Amino acid sequence: MYPSDFEAAPAPIRITLLAALCHVRQAEITDGLVELLVQLVHKISVRAEKKVEGELNAEFRRVHGKSGILVKLATAALGLPEEIVRKALYPVVGKRTLEDIIAEAKANEKEFNTRVRTKLRGSYSHHYRRGLPKLLRAVTFGCSNDTFRPVMDALDLLERYADSDEDFYAASEVVPLEHVVPEDWKEAVVDPDTWLVERIPYELCVLVALRKAIRRREILVEGGNTWRNPDHDLPVDFEDNRDVHYEARAKPRDPADFIADLKKRHVAALDRLNKGVKKHATGGVRITKKKGEAWISVPPVGTNMGIRRVADGTAAVAGMEADTEVALRRTRRMFVNRDNLRAAIRTVVNKTLEARDISRWGPGTACASDSRKFGSWSANFITE
Asked: Which InterPro entries does this entry report, sorted A to Z (predicted)?
């Protein structure tokens, strides 16, 4: 049905279609809010870790010459493969030096975790804490797994204290810690003197645990589509006809067989990529390094229609005056820029607002390309 046919349809059909549209849009809005929650929690953690990594990399290490020590250890181990550690390695690198390296590594790891917690607490308390509680209130979570019941209880606790100015939860409160607070966070969450639970670090732990549970589909989102109850994804007769449904999906019932097949396909795909890289036939996919680590670089997905190919296309169309590549590049250089793009967008938006029926859509000034989004960037003129 086209939009022009909507008004001519009988009232029951119009109301039914409108209800279906509202249901789908509501599910999309709910999924969007959950996606925003998941991304924000991940963003807070990643930013804190990156800042701390930069700070630690800028500091010198207390045990000097660890690279040389590693070379000595490797040389001694290869030269005396059958000898015991005490006789082969200790004469090369003393036991005390190895103990110092281990102690430093443990101290660095503990210091790293402590600094990350400090950064997380700062960014969350000064910025994200104002918006994330409102986001949690806008979504209704559910859980059918008793293992993750503590996360749901923790969300209820956060809701009860949402408008409170207290720094700690009351001693009479039952604060869930298991499956919510990791072991390395307990010293930051629980005060060692009063044994009270501090709210800010506990809220961070709850958000991280909630994100993990949502992505594992252990906690569902009511009214959503992507994060709905996973039990609803199964046919109603799934338990009685497992074999039939597994066969229809061409999947084995044994998890070991499924994992083995998955590994086999992954190895085959990596082998094809390896051969393609050697032959320079990967379509732009290449192996690079980022911060000293190996990365697989994938080019952005596009139309693959460069200016030269557009010029060739216009020349191949009968009856069309062909544009040369030079002429197209001149047009792009002189007319395709940010100001002209913005002017074109304004024209499209204004004409859309003029044609819009105010009685149906209201007197608002919002406009979108596909009724949801309209975006543009200087490096990518045509987006979404």
From this structure: Tn3_Tnp_DDE_dom
